[in-house]
Amino acid sequence: MSFSYNNHSLHAESVDIADLMANYGSPLYVYSRTDIENNWREFDSAFGQHPHLVCYAVKANSNIAVLNVLAKIGAGFDIVSIGELERVLAAGGQASKCVFSGVAKTHAEIKRGLEVGIRCFNVESSAELDRIEQVASGLNMQAPISIRVNPNVDAKTHPYISTGLKENKFGVDIDDAIELYEQAQRYEFINIQGLDCHIGSQLTDVSPFLDALDKVLDLIAKLNDRGIEIAHLDLGGGVGIRYDDEVTIDIAAYVGEMLKRVGNLEIILEPGRAIVGNAGVFVTKVEFLKQNSDKSFAIIDGAMNDLLRPAFYNAYHQVLPVNDNANGVEASWDLVGPICETGDFLAKDRQLSLSEGDYLAVMSAGAYGFTMSSNYNSRPRVAEVMVADDAHHLIRKRENIQDLFNTEAIIND
Ligand code: LLP
């Protein structure tokens, strides 16, 4: 982990975060290049010589600098929209290493994916399979596909990020999958490549992954019996990270368990959070301290529009003072933003010593932080910086006020 104190000031690699704030302003997302690379390599090296592709899930953090760093070390990408595909290409990623997930791919998205030669479409319904056949036939091209099956296992994670149960909108019921593969096999422009599943996000226990694996391996055997060959198995993303005191999945052990069961089958993984989550922090400034009779509020310049996870999932993020030697007001603080919503908080009941003007680092914010941010309350989206050793680079400019409405128009009448 590249975020640690040096001389009482929190650093990202060798760069003092206080200096970054002075340079780039507040609030700010800060990422560690070394952590991003190490996290991806941990997955990649766990496979050794076994055929595999670790496709980073772009939705977790789609900044082109992040994608570029990963492309340079050989990453593939899991994308869910044409926007993500174009980002990967702009960042120097290879289309042939992209898997295209998502429940509602449009004609335009399928066409572009075929034209640039993506690795595989992860198909989520029979209607989508029809659409891919239709678009591919129009282009006279073969569309590589896998079918996303829903193995009906409980990922035991937050219900909003659990995807592998029958009640979820994702994938094809495992009991209907054979029929859909048979349909795929009859299609002229569909080329069956693999089988795919993704059961949820922020899993901290490996057993749901292994249960899902057993179920899909069973299905692959049945498909083989029917003459349908599966060349790769995509097991999705979902490996959790430590936000608080969670004991997380040992990646080498998980991959080891996987390799014991899969024979020579090529494995694709789609980790997002595990690559970037702990490689980023969101830094915000204390504007005011406000103590009511029974509540202490630190009003900060960051808000739910910048980092939605606490408001949306009641997610916990550790909060560290950038200067850990501060002599402020000691209390149990709620960190609340300027937005007109009671849900606008980044943390609750944190014992901290605070003064106005202090900087606070909201930890583990590299995944689903910036990508879920918005302009709610007409707040410009914040800047992002990537640190590598003692260097720092602005990888996204802070939006300005004009950016907020320069695509809007007044009706002239
Ligand atoms: N593959 C598919 C098909 C997915 O739907 C997802 C995440 C991933 C891979 C990557 O999952 P990961 O390795 O990051 O767990 N906004 C939520 C997380 C939503 C995850 C959606 N799908 C959060 O902030 O916790």
Mind explaining what this structure looks like?
- This protein has 413 residues and is an alpha/beta fold.
- The chain has 2 domains: 3-31 and 277-405, Beta Barrel (Lyase, Ornithine Decarboxylase, Chain A, domain 1), CATH 2.40.37; 102-269, TIM Barrel, CATH 3.20.20.
- It is built from 12 helices and 21 strands.
- The strands form 3 sheets. Strands 4, 14, 15, 16, 17, 18, 19, 20 and 21 form a 9-stranded mixed beta sheet that branches.
- It starts with a strand and ends in an 8-residue tail after the last helix.
Name the features:
single chain; 413 residues; alpha/beta; Lyase, Ornithine Decarboxylase, Chain A, domain 1; TIM Barrel; 2 domains; nine-stranded mixed beta sheet; 12 helices; binds ligand LLP
Task: Briefly summarize what is shown.
Helix content is 29%, strand content 27%.
CATH-level-2 architecture of the largest domain: Alpha-Beta Barrel
Q: What amount of the residues lies in strands? A: 25-35%
Tally of individual domains? 2
Model regions low in confidence, pLDDT < 50 over at least 5 residues: none
What would the principal axes of the Cα set say about the shape? globular
Instruction: Provide the CATH top-level class of the largest domain.
Output: Alpha Beta
CATH H-level name of the largest domain... which superfamily? Answer: Alanine racemase
- Averaged pLDDT: 96
Helix content: 25-40%
Structural class: alpha/beta
Small-molecule binders here are: ligand LLP
Q: How many runs of DSSP E, i.e. beta strands?
A: 21
| Number of separate helices | 12
Radius of gyration: 23 Å
Distance from first to last alpha carbon: 58 Å
CATH topology of the largest domain: the name is: TIM Barrel
Largest sheet: 9 strands, mixed
